[in-house]
Specification:
Shape: globular
Largest sheet: 5 strands, parallel
Distance between the termini: 16 Å
Protein name: Response regulatory domain-containing protein
Organism: Roseiterribacter gracilis
Number of strands: 5
Order of helices and strands: EHEHEHEHEH
Radius of gyration: 13 Å
Domain Response regulatory: 2-115
Keywords: Phosphoprotein
Modified residues (4-aspartylphosphate): 51
Length: 123
């Protein structure tokens, strides 16, 4: 599957892509909303992995809504916060959630769960 990773921290985005490639996925990283939306318009993105807090500009939840509306791309969220509000919003908008700091195993499991969920309930 081809994944789009969006994180305003370049090192974090590159690390996530490296892990995702190691477990068999293609991966494209974006550090800005604009870059993510541009990549999202291209064919082949099956899942976005988005940090909830993107720093400057819109937040990851708003970006996920835009990607879903414009390009039909579902989102797996990552965040360093496990607050009930974040958990609720990510459940409403996304297909999964992984708490930072994440492990290779947690990311792999979350991507597999999200993929299985998408197969059961296509958009």
């Amino acid at each position: 599957m081809k994944l789009l990773v969006v994180d305003d921290d370049r090192h974090a985005a590159e690390t996530l892509c490296e892990i995702l490639r190691d477990i068999g996925h293609q991966c494209v990283a974006a550090m800005t909303t604009e870059a993510a939306l541009k990549i999202g318009r291209s064919d082949g993105i099956g899942l976005a992995v988005i940090d909830v807090n993107l720093g400057v500009g819109i937040d990851g939840i708003s970006l996920a809504r835009l990607l879903r509306t414009r390009s039909g791309i579902p989102t797996l969220f990552i965040s360093g916060s496990s607050s009930p509000a974040i958990q609720m919003l990510t459940r409403e908008v996304g297909v999964g959630f992984v708490l930072k700091p994440l492990t290779r195993f947690a990311l792999k499991s979350a991507v597999e769960d999200a993929t299985a969920r998408l197969v059961r309930t296509p958009s």
